[in-house]
Amino acid sequence: MGTPGTAATFDLYPLRFRFETCKLREFSGNGLRGAFGSALKKMNAEAYARYFSPRAEANSGPSGLGDPPRPFVFRLAGPLEAGLNLFLTREPGIEPFKQAMAELGSLQSVAGTELLRLSLSAAARPVHRLRLHFLTPTEIKGADRPEFGILMARIRDRVSTLRELYGAGPIEIDFKAFGERARRVSMTRCELVPVAAERASRSTGQRHSLGGFTGLAEYEGDVSEFLPYLEIARWTGVGRQTVWGKGEIAYETL
Question: What DSSP string runs through 80-97?
């Protein structure tokens, strides 16, 4: 497989909801996630099972394959403003998600209903230095530090999986070669702040970590081909539990 052509994109709906009043006691990523799930389950049990609580089918993939990622993440945009980045671009579209959000309060407006297409093509100009900001607690499985090779492998896999399950199909690249090139990029600065937080599941009583690290890291090397993936990761998040708002990043070239 070669690198994606100019037509290759990652598509999403950047939905934004502004409430006049809201029923939530806690206007947070975790609070939104729980209330939204309850509303969706009452309104559309099939959509809830497929998109809010997806499960891996038996014999559907390699041994140890985890459950599929949900096709959305929440973003807090203000005291009564919630973002829902939706990666489901096939049927049934955005309506079940809009309807479930409308159950959480009195909506003043809904924006972001037009499809946003993000190119997968490499940057036109060479870029050799990069600063990455971890805005919300980020937890990368198997790594205490966001080394570039590990980070890009997680982003690559998440982007391809979301696109395969909910969009135009898996990305057509040489995954191994992509990872090898990413590993050649060096981390030159790393300033992280550990964050300890957790939530308790109302249904099971189990406690789940909402922690990770925030801060920044800088990298040096040929990063041009990775910028489109970092741009997509701004919308998808990276790492564990992104649906609650974890793993939100921003980046700048230096």
Answer: TEEEEEE---STTTTHHH
Helix (H, G, I), strand (E, B) or coil at 195: strand
Burial letters for 121-148: b for 16+ Cβ neighbours within 10 Å, e otherwise? ebeeeebeebebebbbbbbbeeeeebbb
Cα 189 to Cα 140, 144, 192, distances in angstroms:
18, 15, 10
Asked if the peptide bond before residue 92 counts as cis, ω within 30 degrees of 0, the response is yes
H or E stretch including 150? helix 148-166
Give the span between the Cα atoms of 81 and 17, in whole angstroms. Answer: 6
Domains of the chain: 9-117 (3.30.70), 122-253 (3.30.70.1900)
72-87 pLDDT, tens per residue? 999 988 889 999 999 9
Is residue 58 over pLDDT 90?
A: no
